Structure formats: C-alpha cells, structure tokens
Amino acid sequence: xxxxxxxxxxxxxxxxxxxxxxxxxxxxxxxxxxxxxxxxxxxxxxxxxxxxxxxxxxxxxxxxxxxxxxxxxxxxxxxxxxxxxxxxxxxxxx
Length: 94
What we know:
Structural class: mainly alpha
Mean pLDDT: 91
Radius of gyration: 16 Å
Number of strands: 0
Order of helices and strands: HHHHHH
Largest sheet: none
C-alpha cells in the first residue's frame, strides 16, 4: 500500500546523479586494468577522494589516459544516470 503513495522526483534524482560523476570510477578503473595501466585504483582515488568530480574533471581524466581511442570514446559516452554496471545482471540472479 505504501509504495503506491510514493512519488518520484526525477529532477532531484537527475541533479543528484549529475553531482556525482565519481560514480564512473568503477568502469574507468576496469578499462584501465584491461589496458594494463598501473595503479588504476590509486589514480582514481587521488582524483575522487574527498571531493566532487565534475563532468569536465572526469572527462579530462579519461582524455589523459593512455588507452585506445575507441575505449576512450566509450568511456566518454558514459554518464552517472545511464551507467548501471552489473546491477541488471545481479538483480536477475535473485
């Protein structure tokens, strides 16, 4: 009964996601590992720890990576509001 009373505030959700570009650290770290970049966790930790990262900041980080252009382009397409990682796959296991 209570779930039927909930209302989604899409604008607030989008604003919250837009303020948290560090959510993309996971896929970026995964790609960095795929291409053998040393210490990907530490590099992203240095970028994201204790601070908010803007879209521009995260994209500048990706632009500076020494990875193939195609991989870089795929990472630059990601946004906090469309990246779900393995959530859909894991949810199906339950």
